[in-house]
Each structure stands twice: as structure tokens, then as C-alpha cells.
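cron nightly-structures :: item 1 of 1
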Amino acid sequence: MHTIIEPFRIKMTEPIHLISKEERINALANAHYNVFLLDADDCCIDLLTDSGTGAMSTQQWAALMLGDESYAGSRSWKKFEKAVRQITGMKHIFPTHQGRAAESLMAHILVKEGDIIPNNSHFDTTRANIEFRGGIALNLLSEKGMDLTANVPFKGDMDVDKLQQTIEEYSVERIPFCMITVTNNTGGGQPVSMANIRAVKHVLQKHGIPLIIDSCRFAENAYFVKQEEEGYAEKSLLEIAQEMFSYADAATMSAKKDGLANIGGFFVCQNDKWAEQFRNMLILREGFPTYGGLAGRDLEVLAVGFMEALDYDYQVYRHATISYMGRFLEQKGIPYVKPVGGHAVFLDAREFLPHIPPLHYPGIGLVNTLYIEGGIRSVELGSVMFGHFDANGDEQPSPLELVRLAFPRRVYTQSHFDYMLEVIEKVWQERDKIHGYRITYQPEFLRHFSCYFEEL
């Protein structure tokens, strides 16, 4: 077995600077112990998100110079439209400036107060946009997805029986659509099988409920299907993606992930009425439907990036890097979500820091310690991001307490990953010293982005 190498050469470099531990302690205190509020220059390795943080290829940079900035009907729009239609097969295609813009407009036209929106697992902005409209975002993750230690494929699958029970309990009238997120970011970046998508579609079709795919990482999901699911080994990633979208009535996407770009997204659908409503809201909120808040050069970059994300050699390299980290964590006995996800490694903060109760936010304790120890910025996916308040106003923890290390695409090299592992191991060895936190300020929605903490 040959070493899997990066399928690219580096043509341009960007300097990074590791500030001292004392400077990191001060920077974190000034940021109210919320890594979202840190200056990026103070983060040596930035794994806060894989959204919009990747490096573009030479072909994308060349395409950028071809950008047609015409307000309506530009050449760049035509290229974008052609690429998205080739992949999704959708009749109506609308660019947006990023994924949450597509989610916001979708929720505005389709969700009303009291509606139930099932999903395998809603991510933060999806849930927030639904709840902002008065809807209820319901997670129906399969049982295997809740077992963080089970090393089995397709732990992002939806529980089809629970979906049927949900429809019977709440009625079709209260469920305007159902969603599936591929890959399932909230549950550890785990993929969804094609068989599960078909089974969900079968249930929904019987009741006349549309299916919307949150397709941010559609290419990574296609890679898992090719590797793990029977009958797909000989298919190209494009063919697999096309089948996946064929079961959907619509899709949203943050193209800052598997568009391999720094900005962009889309909403696509087959329904003429939805398209008309979305078009009207797009013009009001984002821009004319052939640019949707993006510059022509961004549309050019995305048209290239969608196809590059479906390159098999690129996906092999990306997943080899993440698997490399997983093997190290396994050898050291460091708790993480198994198997490793498609875009990140997820540490199990509950098992990592069992002495910290959920509402003292063990994920924040781990995130902040990784930063102090090595300048690594990661993100909590636990009770700060996904907790909720019950009818009595009492805070309820998330079922999972995770810390995500999300890897920007084509940015870091082998030595960077070895450094990360050294830092994680040191934090693991000194984990008993880590304390919990409490929130001293929080906004009403998406509190994790801007809340303040203090150490307990």
C-alpha cells in the first residue's frame, strides 16, 4: 500500500504564526472564552469550520478571472446553472450567497407556526431558521447514529419507523416537508445510505410529503456510498450524486463546503409554485435570480468547484487524512465518534471530561483547552449549540457533547495534522485539570456564535 499523497502541488503559501501560550490565554479571556470571538490571526490551526475556508484550485482561480458581472443573465450564471442541473437534475435553480440564505428563504415560504420538520439531524442554522418561523425542528436519527462507539457505516441514516410514527402522531397537514442532511454534520459527519434515502422517500411519497435534501456535503456522502454500499463500487461519484438528488423534491446547499469555494449556495426544486415564491423572496432579500447575492466570478468558481469535489482521487486523499487522525485517537484511547466523519473528527467531550456535567458545557472546556495548549480553534457541538429550554424555562442538555475539528479543504499538510495530534494527546493526558463554564450573556437565537462564558 503506497502512502496516499495530496493530489496537488502547493503554488502559493500563506504565513501562519503561533503566538505564545500566555498571549493565547489573554486572547481567550478578551474573547469572553468564546473562540468564535477570537481574531483569526491568533489561531495557528483553524478548525472552527470547513465552510468557506478551503483553498481553491488553479482552475478555479483561472475561472474567477472570467467572471461576467452582468446584472441579469450573465455567462457565469449559465455555467453555474449547467453544473448544478447536471448534478441535481432540478428544474428550478437559484443561487444564494450562502446556505443559510437558502434555508431562510425556504423557511419563510414553506414553514408556519406549529409546523413539524423532521430531519435525520438539523444543523444549527437550519434549526434556527425553522424555529424563527415558529416551526419545530425534529431530529429522527437512527439508533446506530446515537451510539458514538459503534464502528459501523451510515450512522447518519434517518430512523424510518420514527418518521412513520411522527407522521401518524402529528398528521400530514402539520408536516410541509421532510429533510435529510448529507452528510449528517450534527451526528459526527456520518453519511446517509442511498437505501435509507429511498426508504424515507417511499414513506413520504405515500403521504404526499416532499423531501428536501440539505446537500452541503453531497460529494463526501457520494464517496461513502461508493466505498461502503453494495452496488455502487463501479459508479462514479457524479452518478451517485445524481441518483441521490433524484429522490428529492428540492435541495438547499452551502456551496462553501462541497462547492470548494469561499462563498455561495443554492436552492433548487422541481415545484413550480415553490420556485415562484422563492424567486420573489430572492429578489427582495438577495438579488436578481441569476446572481442571487453572488458576484459573477463566484458563480464561475462554483461551476468548477462542484465538479472538482466529485473527483474520486480528491475524495480519497481527503478521507485518508481524516482516517489517519482517527487511527491515532484509537491507539491512544482518546474518545471520538466512530467511524470518523467525512469532513471532520469529532471528539466525545462527555467521555473525554466525565467530571464536567452537561450544563457546565464540557465541550467548551475542551475547545478552550485545545486553543490554550496549541492555538487550535475547534467548535463545540453540544449543549451550548444544541441544548434547549423546556416549557418551564429550564435548560435541557443536548443528547451529545461533541467537539468538532473540521478540516478546511486542501489547506493543511501532514505536519499540521501531526501537530494537532500532539496537542490533543497532551490535553488528554492533563484532562483532569479542565474546568466547566457558565454562560454570562446569550442572544435569543444561535447563542453559540456570540455568547459570553466564564470559567467555573
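cron nightly-structures :: done
The domain at 21-50+311-455 is CATH 3.90.1150.10 (Aspartate Aminotransferase, domain 1).
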